[in-house]
Each structure stands twice: as C-alpha cells, then as structure tokens.
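Cross-posted from the bioinformatics board.
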Amino acid sequence: MTMEKAKDYKELSVMAAERIAMKISNKPNAVLGLATGSTPEGMYDALIKMYNQKRISFAEAATFNLDEYVGLHSDDENSYAYYMKQHLFQHIDLSPEKAHLPDGEADDMDEACKAYEQRIEEAGGIDLQVIGIGLNGHIGFNEPHTPFEQRTHVVELDKTTRNANARFFPSLEAVPTHAITMGIQNIMESKELLLLVAGEQKASVLERLVYGDKTEAFPASIIKEHPNVTIIADQGALSGLKAADYQAGK
Ligand SMILES: O=P(O)(O)OC[C@H]1O[C@](O)(CO)[C@@H](O)[C@@H]1O
C-alpha cells in the first residue's frame, strides 16, 4: 500500500486526475472504475480541465461506476447516472455506450447484477478503480459485515450512509433505502486501486484503515491485501496518523 500526501483537497484532486491521465496515456483503451460522492468531484473537474487542454482523451476508454441507487431514474438528479453526466461525462469525449453504471431500475435485480459483471468481464476487467470511503468504512455501497467474497449485489443501506447522503436529498426519507453495488470481490479484482480520502471528518476512518485489523466490520480493511493500491489523502484526513507512517508509505 502506497500513501501519497496532498496538502489540501485541490492538490489531492489534481494528483488523482494525474493518475488517471497517466493510465489513459499509457493505455488509451483503459477500463476505468469510477466513484461518486463528494470526494472525487475535484478530480473530475481536474480531468475536464486536462481534456479541454487536449492533454487527454477518453475516446477509446470505458468506464464502470461502482454503484447506483435502486429506484432512481437516470434523469433523477440524485441518481449516480445523473451525477456522472454532470460531473464528467457531458464534458468529455467518452462514448456513451462505454460509460456504464449498474441499472438501479431493472425489473430483475439479480439479472442486472449478473449483466453488469459480464459487461466488466467483456471489457477485459477494470484497470484502475477509484474508490472513496464511507464514515463506516464502506467501499462502493458495501456496508459493514458484507462478506469479503461478495460480488455485485443489491444492498440495504446503513443508517449512517443514508444520514451522510441525506445532504443531497430534500429529506432523509427521500434517500433510497437500497442500492446496487459492485461487491468487495469485484473491487479487489481491479488491477489497480486508488483510494481518495479527504478532510478531517475522515481522519478516524483513515486511522482505522491504516492501523486496524482486517475485518468485515470495516469493509475497506480488505484493500490492504490488494497488490497495487495507492491512497491519496489530504492533510485533514492524515491528521490521525503518525507522520512517519505515511512518509514511509505504509
Ligand atoms: O466522498 P464521500 O461523499 O465522503 O462518500 C464516500 C463514499 O460514500 C459513497 O458516496 C456512498 O455513500 C460512495 O460512493 C463514496 O465512495
């Protein structure tokens, strides 16, 4: 596990975008795994900037998002499909057929989960997966006590997660109760993982990730076993760690 320190959120965002830019420069048809939430917003802004400066092109790339709410139409402004359109897709040259999100509106959810996995497999697997981390250690929407072997599935959202995400909705009741998410196993299968952690409110989460044991009670703890994982964290998020630990790239 490599840890990279950013002085602030802006620097973290640029560092993350540079990782993606490097990936698609080396492999123009790279398969990128994308995340939503507040954390990657700055990274998407930085990527759009690089695209506008003609530094990068997504013309040959494909993307797969980690998760989507169940029951929200892609035009619903709280759906992750809408988020991705607003924050990235409408600004770049990624082909719409190659921009994938789980289908939160499918009649048959089990089928939708299988179909999503199949599309990832057909694309050759994910080269670089960006993830954020929830306050309870979730990755994607894999809540605490999700088995590490879990594949794409429908999940009932934890109270903490619904509360944390209520800021995007008119009320807590409006936050969907379920989501469809890549499983922990899918995340671990990506060739490279990039975890972004920003802000002091995530300091204790990062502390637990770095010093804690591997446990299904804290889903992110598994990523320490991934052979190619980088964490980019800003000063706020790093405030719970001993400086020597991140300088040494623990
Ligand atoms: O970046 P945020 O908004 O703190 O969210 C952290 C994680 O929580 C989720 O938004 C789901 O609640 C993930 O998609 C994200 O990685």
